[in-house]
Amino acid sequence: NISYFAQRLRWSRHEKHYLEIIFEVLSAKPDFNSLNQKNRVLYKYGSKIFQDINFLLAVKEKVGFDKLKDHILESQIWSPLIFPVKGRDLLSLGIPPSPELGKLLNVLENWWIDNNFKFTREECLAYIKKVIR
After folding, report:
1. Cα(41)–Cα(56) distance, integer angstroms
2. Helix segments in the chain, DSSP class H
3. Is the Cβ–Cβ distance between 34 and 58 less than 8 Å?
4. Distance CA 30, CA 33 (A)
């Protein structure tokens, strides 16, 4: 129970949140041999958390040193990406401000991640137009 330990050990909110993220990712049983899963964690949480998760997986799953080293090196050269679509882009398509707008933006971002970040703003907007039809 992270909350229990956070309180007992007087962790900061940041420390508690950091552990919650690591626990969430580990609970999903990531396969970092999958480019998509590796890129998703790097994009959403950054290289520091990715590296810490890899160290934990190396111990837990007895991952070989070479595989661990490859993952760490990949994370060190990772360049943070910026999702090319904003909420205002969906507003310009006539989608009213609502919880639905946030859900559509999330669907679009997940699609962009699943496709290895290769689509431009225009391609993303073309995709979301198909989704809302």
Report:
1. 15
2. 2-8, 13-27, 35-45, 47-60, 65-77, 87-92, 99-114, 121-132
3. no
4. 9
Structure tokens at 89: 């882009």
107 CB burial (10 A radius; 0-12, 13-18, 19+): middle
User: CB pairs under 8 A, 24+ apart, for 111-114?
Assistant: 112/83, 112/84, 112/85, 113/36, 113/39, 113/40, 113/43, 114/36
- d(C-alpha 58, C-alpha 64), whole Å: 7
The answer to whether residues 72 and 48 touch, using CB atoms and an 8 Å cutoff, is no
CB atoms within 10 A of CB 55: 13
pLDDT digits (tens, 9 = 90+) for 72-127: 999 999 998 999 999 999 999 999 999 999 999 999 999 999 999 999 999 999 99
Taking each helix axis from N to C end, the angle separating 121-132 and 99-114, rounded to the nearest 10 degrees, works out to 120
